[in-house]
Amino acid sequence: MPRLRGLPCAGQKLIAVFLRRTYKGHTRQNRADVQNAFDTNAITQEELVDDVQDITSRGRNKIAQRFRNSNIAIFALASAAMAMAIVWAIEDMTGQISADYARLHAINTEKNLSIYTHSDIGFIANAARSSVIRDWFADEQDPRKRKDAHALMMGVVSSLHGSSLYIGIQKTLAEYSIEAKCALSDMQPHARLDPSNPEDAWYFDLMASDRDYVLNVDTDKKLHKKRVWLNHKVVAPDGELLGAFTAGVPLAWAAEKIFSGYQDASVRTVIMDGKGVVTLDSSLLDKGDLLLDAPDMPIQKVSSDPAFLAAMENHLSDSHDRLQPGALEVIQLATNRLGYATIAHIESTDWAVVTLYEPFSLFDPTKLLPFGAIMAALLAAFAVASSILSYRLIFRPLGQLILNLSRIKSAEENIYGLERDDEFGILSNVIHRLLNEAHHDPLTGLHNRRSMEKEMHRAMGMLSRSGGMLSVLMIDVDCFKGYNDTYGHDAGDLCLKAIASVLASTASRTDDVVARYGGEEFAVILPNTDKDGACAIAQKMLETVRALKMPHSANAAADHVTFSLGVATGAVNRTQNQHAYFRKADEALYTSKHTGRNKYTWLPAQAAP
C-alpha cells in the first residue's frame, strides 16, 4: 500500500487495518476502489489541515460518554439483578422456614389438643363400652343398675372439669342430665328426645352415623353456653343400639391456652370439624370465649386462595386419608398475606387444625439498606474507574486516529455511519471521502475511468431489458501535447478543467456520465440517446469549446483549442459488451483526427461476436 502524504507510518497502518475490516465482506471491486484511492494519492498537507477544527467541534467524546453510561447501566442492572437474586434467595429461605414454622405450629397445636381429647375420648369411650352403662341402658328402671351407672357417670363428669353429661335411651327416648354432685335420686328423665327438636339433633345424628362417636359444637341446655361435645353411642355386645350420651370436653379451654402461646399477627390457627365448619379461631382470642363468639363459618371463608380452597376441598372429601396418623399437608398460598398453610388432623377425631403463617415476619427488607448503600458506592467507584480507563486505553488513541483520518478530503459515496455525530461518524465520512476520490478525477472532478466503466455496465444492464439506445462519445483534445509545451502544464490543467466543464454542462441529464478517460481524453455515456441525439450533443460540444476562444498556436486545426469526437450508437442487447461501444467510438475518433480534427464522426455500434 502506498503511503499517504502527511500521515505517520503508525497512522497509515491503523487506516489500512480499519479499511480492511470495514470492507472485509465487500466485493473485490470495492476493495480495488479503496486501493485506487490510495493510488491516486492526491491529498496535500494543506488540505489535511483544513479539517482539524472540524473534528474538535463535533464532540469526539460522545462515544466515550455512551460507553461509560452503558457500562454504568450494565453494572446497575447487574447490581439490581444481584439484589433481586439475594432477595429471592432470602424469600426462598424464609419461605422454607415459614413452611416449617407453619408445620411446627400445626403439629404443636394438634399434639396438645390430642393430649386433651384423646384421654377424654378414651375415658368416655371406656365408660360407653362398660357393662355397667350397657346394663342400665338396657333396663333403666332397675335400681341396682341405676346406682352402678350413677357412680360411674359421676366419675366421668368430675374428670371433665364439671361438664354436664346428657344421656339418651333408645328404647324410651328418655333424656337424662347428669351434673356434678348430682344425687342418685336426681337421676330422673327430664325430657323426651324429639327428632323434630333441633336441640336433640345430636342424638339422632349420632344414631344415623356409621361412627361410634363424633365431636360437635353445641350449646349447653342448662348453662346456655357453647361447648365442644363428645357424642358416643352405647352399643350392646350383639350390636343393638342402646342409646348414647354426650359429654363436654375441655377443647376450647385447651385451645385458648395453646393460642395464647403465639398471640401474633403472623400466625393464625383455626380448628374445623369434619364438615369443614370453623369451631375455634385464634383471631378471636381477644374477643372473649372462643366458642361463644366464634362465627359458624365454613373453612373456605378463612382464605380465598385457590390452592387453599383446593386443599380444603380435597381434605374434606377424602375422609380416610385425613384421619391417618401423622397426616400433615403444607400449602403455599399465592394471594394471601399469610403465605403458608398446614392441615393436621386431631387424633381420635375427624377434626383438624389449620395453621396459616406469614413468611415476611421472618424477613425485614430494611435490613438490606446497608447492602444497597454498599452497591451504590461500588457503582459510583465503577463509574469513575470506567471513565478514566476507557479514556486512557480506548478513546484517547481513537481520538488521535480520528484526527488523522478526518484530514482526508471526501466525495459523495454513501456508506454506513455518515449521519452519525460521533467518532464513528467521522470515520465513516473519511472513508466516504476516500471512496469518492477512488471514483472521481482529482483535477476535473469528473468520473474517472474505473467509475465510468461501472456506470457503463449499469446503464447497459438497465437498457438491455427494453432494447434501449445507447450512445458513447470519445473525445480527444487536438494537439494537446503542443499546448502543454507552449503554455505550460498549469495552463494545460486549466484547459482540461474548462473542457470538462463544457462536457458536463452539455451532457447534464441525471443518467449521463462524463469521465476523464486518461490524459487529454474524455468519454461521455448517453443512455436512451439515438444517433440524432448523440450527434446533436457532439456538435453542441464542438461549438461551445470553439466559443471559448482559448488560444492554441500549436493546433493544426485552428488557432484556438478544439477537440475531435468519435460517436458510436446502438440498441443494447444482452449479447453486447461495453467494450464494443468504446472500440467503435474510438474508431470514429480516429477517423475524425485523421480527416482534419475539430469535428465528430458517427459509427454504428456492432454486437459482440
Question: Could you please describe the fold and organization of this structure?
Answer:
- By secondary structure, the chain is of the alpha+beta class.
- Among the domains are: 121-252, Beta-Lactamase (2-Layer Sandwich), CATH 3.30.450.20; 440-604, Reverse transcriptase/Diguanylate cyclase domain (Alpha-Beta Plaits, 2-Layer Sandwich), CATH 3.30.70.
- Helix content is 49%, strand content 17%.
- The protein contains 19 helices and 17 strands.
- It has helices at residues 9-22, 28-40, 45-49, 52-57, 62-129, 131-138, 143-159, 201-208, 251-259, 290-293, 306-317, 319-322, 369-405, 423-439, 449-463, 480-487, 489-506, 531-548, 578-593; strands spanning 165-169, 174-178, 191-192, 213-219, 226-235, 241-249, 267-272, 277-281, 297-298, 328-332, 340-345, 352-357, 469-477, 513-518, 521-527, 563-571, 600-604.
- The strands form three sheets. The chain has a six-stranded antiparallel beta sheet with strand order 3-2-1-6-5-4, sandwiched between helices. Strands 9-8-7-12-11-10 form a six-stranded antiparallel beta sheet, with helices on both faces.
- Helix 5 (62-129) runs antiparallel to helix 13 (369-405).
- The protein is rod-shaped and about 165 Å long.
- Mean pLDDT is 77; it is low at 1-59 and 407-413.
Can you lay out the helices and strands and say which pair or pack?
Elements: H1 9-22, H2 28-40, H3 45-49, H4 52-57, H5 62-129, H6 131-138, H7 143-159, E1 165-169, E2 174-178, E3 191-192, H8 201-208, E4 213-219, E5 226-235, E6 241-249, H9 251-259, E7 267-272, E8 277-281, H10 290-293, E9 297-298, H11 306-317, H12 319-322, E10 328-332, E11 340-345, E12 352-357, H13 369-405, H14 423-439, H15 449-463, E13 469-477, H16 480-487, H17 489-506, E14 513-518, E15 521-527, H18 531-548, E16 563-571, H19 578-593, E17 600-604
Parallel strand pairs: 16-17
Antiparallel strand pairs: 1-2, 1-6, 2-3, 4-5, 5-6, 7-8, 7-12, 8-9, 10-11, 11-12, 13-15, 13-16, 14-15
Helix pairs in contact: 2-14, 5-7, 5-9, 5-13, 6-7, 13-14, 16-17, 17-18
